[in-house]
Amino acid sequence: MTEIAQRFREFKMPDVGEGLTEAEILKWYVKPGDSVTDGQVVCEVETAKAAVELPIPYDGVVHEIRFPEGDAVDVGTVIISVDTGASGAQDSGDAGAGTGASAPGSGAEAGPEPDAAQKRQPVLVGYGVAASSTKRRPRKPPAVPGRPVSSAGTPVPVHPVAAALQGEPNGQGRGAPALGAARTGVPATPLAKPPVRKLAKELGIDLAAIVPTGAGGVVTREDVQAAASAPAPVQAVPAQAPATGPALAPHAPAEASRETRVPVKGVRKAIAAAMVASAFTAPHVTEFVTFDITRTMRLVAELKQDRAFEGLKVSPLLLVAKALLVAIRRNPEVNAAWDEANQEIVHKGYVNLGIAAATPRGLIVPNIKDAQAKTLPELAAALSDLIGTAREGRTAPADMQGGTVTITNVGVFGIDTGTPILNPGESAILAFGAVKELPWVHKGKVKPRQVTTLALSFDHRLVDGELGSRVLGDVAAVLEYPKRLLTWA
């Protein structure tokens, strides 16, 4: 029984984030019978925060895949098992006839050393290299293209030997190259990053049919977009014989055929849980202010020509973020959190500024750490990097932890304002509405001016109406007269 457990190794769904309880299997890159090596990516999973590729920490042959693509699996559940004995037999054969085959139970195919678990350090997924290692092992390409779990699209039945397997720590392989790659010299599966794979899946593009242009034969986002924009081949449509009888009125479709049901999972499930928890835990109050933002818009145009911002994106959102940071500095009590367990209010001496970003996976709120300490060019660089990373689907779970206040830019959709819901654990969220040219009284005369509306929602347990009004008023005052960035900051 012990020999079987050493031969067949089980790999469990790891915790790929901070406190996440489940992940959805997006794609398998291997199938039962495929050879795998230590460090080879075998599947891609999606959590409520990010898409992550999982490497297998064993050498051997895939024995069983427990869950098909699309299934949500709890952390700690076995998702794949590997026959490490089959790999050992092949390795010994490749070593030459002079070495001979190892007898069963001789120890030649024994598992890792007794202290291997202590030598390997826990990392994001599985177990990492030894603590003394300083060079990261390059990822090897999968041996064969990913295919369904079985021809019927269902998991392979559980083998009787699985009953003898125990959920032990992931072992330490020998790092032999994948068999398919060793024989052909070319990776059987196209190389591409997870966001690129997801984009290809959404556009219905087969990565294997794309000629890669990236370094090392990697398929890039531009390759996928070029393939999607290529004209599709024209297919001849057979001529239909003219109807000889009277035309029949189409039957009204059943209600069920006109409805589409989408499982609630991934980012959408996380958003729903967070919004319900926030809406029914923190008493929300929302205040609004409409004002003349013409001077700020002129400043944005001037900063775009400034050498200090060369190569950086300068937008009204940048100055809104800076104005909010100035308002928080003048009213630090707003930057706090409610600790229900200890019945305490936690005042924070730092501002992790969240920016709500719409992505193909849904709404996420990464944050800029210690935003209060950044200069305007540094804030511009951080803002551009944060939004670009989010849209590419590369936001790390840690980048979405520890936010204190958030900005949501509804103006990019042409919306005047809204009543935003707080990100759980935060004290306030500012909605920036569309900037529109409207008739406005300026210096005693009605003139066309650029006008916008801000909305500030805050947790009324932490923020009284007076404090919330001061914060919102300070943000508007800075944006109406940007010189206050100097006089107040």
Name the features:
489 residues; alpha+beta
Provide a short characterization of the protein structure.
The protein is built from 12 helices and 23 strands. The chain is α+β, with helices and mostly antiparallel strands. A hairpin with a 2-residue loop joins strand 22 and strand 23.
Question: How many individual helices?
Answer: 12
Shape: elongated
Helix fraction bin: 10-25%
| Uncertain regions spanning at least 5 consecutive residues | 87-154, 156-187
- Beta strands, count: 23
Portion of residues in beta strands equals 15-25%
Please identify the structural class as seen in this structure: alpha+beta
Distance between the termini: 70 Å
Look at the structure and give the mean pLDDT: 77
Radius of gyration using CA atoms only: 29 Å
Largest sheet: 7 strands, mixed
What report would you give on this structure?
- It is a single chain.
- The chain is an alpha+beta fold.
- Helix content is 25%, strand content 22%.
- It has twelve helices and 23 strands.
- It has helices at residues 2-7, 84-94, 116-119, 179-184, 194-203, 221-229, 266-279, 294-303, 316-330, 376-391, 465-480, 484-487; strands at residues 8-12, 22-28, 35-36, 41-46, 51-55, 60-65, 72-74, 78-83, 120-122, 127-130, 191-192, 218-219, 284-292, 336-339, 344-347, 353-355, 357-359, 362-364, 367-368, 405-408, 428-432, 436-442, 445-459.
- The strands form seven sheets. Strands 13, 16, 19, 20, 21, 22 and 23 form a seven-stranded mixed sheet that branches.
- The radius of gyration is 29 Å and the shape is elongated.
- The model is unreliable at 87-154 and 156-187 (pLDDT under 50).
